[in-house]
Amino acid sequence: MASFKALLGEQVLLPIIQADTAAQGVAIAGAMQQAGIHLVEVVLRTEASIAAMQAIKAAYPNMVVGAGTVTNAEILKVAIAAGADFIITPAVSPNLLSQLCDCPVPVVPGVSNSADVLLAIEHGFTELKLFPATLSGGAAFIKAMGAVFPQVSFCPTGGISDKNKDEFLTLPNCLAVGGSWVAPSDWVESASWDKITAACAQANQALAG
Question: What EC designation does it have (predicted)?
Fold first, then answer.
């Protein structure tokens, strides 16, 4: 099975899509694809989330579309059945990690402290999401974990923006940064798809540079 890092390829921005309708999700994804984004996370926080994820995959077959905010076995089952290419959780528990061990696609469990990191490692996971990143120690936490758990890489999410992303991306154990700053709700509500494209393009250029 490919790792999450392998799915990312050269992309180090994990853009988060939160959609109220399937059509809205497709429009957001389309705006992101215009900026060269090939992998996105659809957070399962609205009733339309699953439909949006499926619609994005249908509209853009080459796009890698993952499911976020997976918190239990039932949601995990629904996400996999809907075709999620990867799974991201906001937190971990022994029970959830046990369910994730049998997942047929890459999984990025969410951690917020060193105990969570160790628990995830004990279940075989070394690609982890730090959430909420800035409230859980930020770049300093990730740097400290590199000395204790050198096999682990992180994708911080929560409080990441254009202003602080580079603090994370300069760390060798940070594989990507996730966030919704490239598609804020007011842009989505006003159908400002060009703004989303521009923000993603700027972020990609800055990150690549």
Answer: 4.1.2.14, 4.1.3.16
* Domain membership flag for residue 4: no
Mean pLDDT of the chain: 95
Own/partner long-range contacts of 159-164 (Cβ < 8 Å, ≥24 apart): 159/132, 159/133, 159/134, 159/135, 160/133, 160/134, 162/202, 162/203, 162/206, 164/134, 164/138, 164/139
Q: Residue 2 domain-assigned?
A: no
129 carries an active-site annotation: yes
- Tens of pLDDT along 108-123? 999 999 999 999 999 9
d(CA 33, CA 27): 10
* Tokens standing for residue 196: 């989303």
What pLDDT does residue 1 have? 66
pLDDT of 2: 80
- Among residues 57, 127, 129, 167, the one annotated as catalytic is 129
- Assess if residue 5 is contained within a domain: no
Total structural domains within the chain: 1
What is the residue range of 49's domain? Answer: 12-208
Question: What CATH number is attached to the domain comprising 109?
Answer: 3.20.20.70
